[in-house]
Write a structure and sequence with these properties.
With about 425 residues, the chain is an alpha+beta fold. The chain is about 40% helix and about 20% strand. The strands form 4 sheets. An 8-stranded mixed β-sheet has the order 1-10-11-12-15-9-8-4. A 3-stranded mixed β-sheet has the order 7-13-14. It has a two-stranded antiparallel ribbon with strand order 2-3.
C-alpha cells in the first residue's frame, strides 16, 4: 500500500509515474474522490464537536444560574448536533472502508531508474553469463529426457491430480531434492537464515504482501477462508508483521524452500509440456528486510546471490531489467534472471528479484526504530527466487544431457548422488 500522505500531497506526480505501467487504474481517481470526502467529513465532525462542547458549557452555566428554559433550548440543539455527528461518523466509517479497498488496488510506484515500456519486449538486457550450451547432437527436451529415463510420470500425475501436476520419480525426484538442498546451502552460506514455514495462509497475510485482492484468481482457495501459498515470499515477508524491530537487528535475510501453488489463470496453451508452468512447484525463496537507505544495495546483492547458484551449476543465463509495463504489482524495481533452455532455443525466467520499498511494509505494519532518533520507520522489503526449482531441474536436465540420452550430474551436485557422474 502506498503512503497515503504522499498520495495526497503529490497526487499528480504519483499518478503520472504509475501511468507508465501502461494500464488504467480507476482506483487512483476513486481515491481522490474518497479522500476529499473523508477530509470534508473529518473537518465537519471536528467543527460540530467544537460547537457541541461550547453549547454544553453554556448549558452548565445556565443551569447554575437557574435559567432552566434557556438551558433546555440549548440542550435540544446539542441533541440535534449529536445526531448529526453520529450520522457523519457512520459515513466516515464507510468512506474509511472504501478507501482501504481502493488503496489496496493501487500498485507500487516504479523507481525512477526503471525504464518506461509496454511489455516484455521493452525490457533491456543488463548482462549475460556464459554461452548457450553447444549440444552437437540431436538433443531432447527435458520432458522427453525425463520420460525416457523414468525421471517423471506425467500420466499418473494427471490420474491423481489433473493437468499441470508432475510426479518426480527415482533420480528425477533425487535431483529435485538435491537442487532444494543445494540452493538452500548457497543461500545460508551467503548469510540467509533458513526457515520452514507453513503453506496454508490466511487472507490477511496475502493482503499484506499484495497477493490479494489483485491476484485472487491465481490462488488456490480452501474451504475455510484460507489459501495455499503461491510463494514463500508471503510467509517470510510477513514473519515480523505488526512488530517494531530494533535497528541493530537489520538487515534480516531469510530463505526457505517450499511447495508453491498457483492456478495459472490465463495461461491456457502456454508451456503445456514439461515442468515449466505447474499448479504445484517448488521454489527456494529469498527475502530481505532492510533500512530504506540500504534497499537498493541489497537488491544487487540478492541478484548476485541468485546468479552465483547458476554459475556454480555452470548454466548460461542473462539478466534483464523489467520495464514499467512488465513489473509486478508490489514491485518498485525488478530484475529477472533467465536461464538458457535448449528445447526453447531461448532464455526462460528462473528468478525474479524485486525491491518493494515500503509498499508491503505499510500493509504489514513492518517497522523498525532508529537507534539515534528513536523514530519509528517502515522497513523496505525485497524478495527473489533463489531459485525456481522445477525450472532449474529442467535446465540441468537439458543442458547436461549426453548423446545417449543420459544426464551428466553437475559437479556441485554429485555429493547428493553418492558421487555418481551420470544418471
Amino acid at each position: 500500500m502506498l503512503d497515503i500522505n504522499r498520495l495526497r500531497n503529490e497526487f499528480d506526480s504519483v499518478a503520472k509515474r504509475i501511468a507508465t505501467r501502461g494500464k488504467d487504474y480507476p482506483a487512483l481517481q476513486q481515491y481522490q474522490q474518497l479522500d476529499q470526502k473523508w477530509r470534508k467529513l473529518t473537518t465537519d465532525i471536528q467543527k460540530l464537536n467544537t460547537e457541541r462542547n461550547s453549547l454544553t458549557e453554556q448549558v452548565a452555566k445556565l443551569m447554575k444560574a437557574n435559567q432552566l428554559d434557556a438551558a433546555n433550548q440549548i440542550r435540544a440543539k446539542v441533541q440535534v448536533i449529536k445526531t448529526s455527528i453520529v450520522e457523519m461518523e457512520q459515513d466516515l466509517t464507510e468512506v474509511d472502508s472504501q478507501l482501504d479497498v481502493v488503496l489496496h488496488s493501487i500498485p507500487n510506484i516504479p523507481h525512477e531508474s526503471v525504464p518506461i515500456g509496454k511489455d516484455e519486449n521493452d525490457n533491456p538486457e543488463i548482462r549475460k553469463w556464459g554461452n548457450p550450451t553447444p549440444l552437437n547432437f540431436k538433443f531432447l527436451s527435458h520432458w522427453e529426457l525425463a520420460e525416457k529415463n523414468g525421471y517423471v510420470d506425467f500420466e499418473r500425475a494427471v490420474k491423481l491430480s489433473g493437468s499441470r501436476f508432475t510426479i518426480y520419480c527415482g533420480n528425477g525426484a533425487k535431483l529435485i531434492r538435491a537442487l532444494q538442498s543445494f540452493t538452500l546451502d548457497v543461500n545460508t552460506n551467503a548469510g540467509f537464515v533458513e526457515m520452514l514455514p507453513p503453506v496454508i495462509l490466511n487472507a490477511q497475510t496475502l493482503i499484506g504482501t499484495g497477493q490479494l485482492p489483485k491476484f485472487e484468481e491465481d490462488l488456490f482457495k480452501l474451504t475455510n477462508h484460507q489459501y495455499l501459498s503461491p510463494t514463500a515470499e508471503v510467509q517470510l515477508t510477513s514473519f515480523y508483521a505488526n512488530e517494531i524491530l530494533a535497528e541493530k537487528q537489520l538487515p534480516i535475510w531469510l530463505t526457505a524452500n517450499t511447495a508453491c501453488f498457483r492456478s495459472e489463470a490465463g495461461s491456457a496453451g502456454k508451456d503445456t509440456k514439461g515442468v515449466i508452468r505447474q499448479h504445484q512447484f517448488y521454489k527456494t525463496e529469498m527475502v530481505m528486510l532492510t533500512k530504506p537507505s540500504d534497499s537498493y544495495t541489497a537488491l544487487e546483492q540478492m541478484v548476485a546471490n541468485a546468479e552465483s547458484i547458476l554459475q556454480k551449476l555452470n548454466l548460461p543465463y542473462r539478466i534483464i531489467l523489467l520495464c514499467t509495463g512488465d513489473q509486478g504489482f508490489a514491485a518498485s524495481k525488478t530484475y529477472d534472471i533467465e536461464v538458457w533452455l535448449p528445447s526453447y532455443g531461448a532464455y526462460k525466467e528462473i528468478s525474479s528479484c524485486s525491491n518493494c520499498e515500503d509498499f508491503q511494509a505499510r500493509n504489514l505494519m513492518l517497522r523498525y526504530k532508529e537507534a539515534t532518533t528513536d523514530k519509528t520507520v517502515f522497513l523496505h522489503t525485497l524478495n527473489g527466487s533463489g531459485l525456481a526449482i522445477d525450472r532449474l531441474w529442467a535446465a540441468v536436465i537439458e543442458n547436461y544431457q549426453q548423446p545417449d540420452g543420459t544426464v551428466k550430474v553437475p559437479e556441485v551436485l554429485r555429493k547428493y548422488f553418492d558421487h555418481k557422474e551420470i544418471i
